[in-house]
Every structure is written in structure tokens, then in C-alpha cells.
Amino acid sequence: MEKAACVFCQRKNIKIVLENELAVAFWDSHPVNKGHLLIIPKAHKVTYFDLSDAELLAINALSRQGKALIDQTFSPAGYNVGFNVGHYGGQTVMHCHCHLIPRYIDDDPHPAGGIRKLLPNGGEI
């Protein structure tokens, strides 16, 4: 995908809530839970593995700032943090993005296993 066609590069209808030199954070338009934050590099990079060390540090810094903001605003009980990479990894927007997803008591009656629960047999081989 070209940068010009990338919805995250265009940043239309995206209200940036946190920013540093190399990354921005904004609320997910299709949140898993209230307070679901996306953190992206400013430069068009397709996956986590395309990021420079500096971009990784910038995203990490915003994830920590985002956690503080979410804690203050929504008081979650836990978090899921992660990157989807490639079609089979669940990536739907081909611009690298980190999901910072707050979790709340009883949003899942059986939270053990986290992301593994999405896989057949709980991810067991």
C-alpha cells in the first residue's frame, strides 16, 4: 500500500491525543473496550518489524503515556498490548499500529489466556 492511500498517513478524522517526534496516539474508531488507544509511527511503516529502534522507543514512550491517560480517565483493571503483523496475524490496516487495550472486571468472564483464546485449542500445539 502506498503512503498516499494509507488511512493512518492521511490522518483524516483522527484526533491525536498524544504525540512525540516519531509517533502519535489516538482513540481506536472501532474499540474493543472504552479507552482503546492506537499508537503509530508518523512515517509509513507496514509492520512492527519495519520500525527503526528510534520508532520503537517512541511508540514505547507513548504507550506508557497512554496507559497513564487511560488509567486516569477510565480506571481499567488490566491491559492487552500488541501488534498484529500481516493478514494472517490479523492486521487489517497496513500501517504499523500498537493496540493499547484496557480491560475491565467482567468484560470477559474468563480472561486467562488473553490472546491465546482466539486460537483453536487455546494456542496449544
From TrEMBL:
InterPro entries recorded: AP-4-A_phosphorylase (IPR052908), Histidine_triad_HIT (IPR001310), HIT-like (IPR011146), HIT-like_sf (IPR036265)
GO molecular function, one term: hydrolase activity
Pfam family, one: HIT
Residues the record marks as active site: 97
UniProtKB keywords: Hydrolase
Protein name, per record: Diadenosine tetraphosphate (Ap4A) hydrolase
Residue ranges of the motif Histidine triad motif: 95-99
Organism, scientific name: Agrilactobacillus composti DSM 18527 = JCM 14202
HIT domain residues: 4-110
Superkingdom, natural source: Bacteria
Keyword Hydrolase: yes
Record keyword Translocase present: no
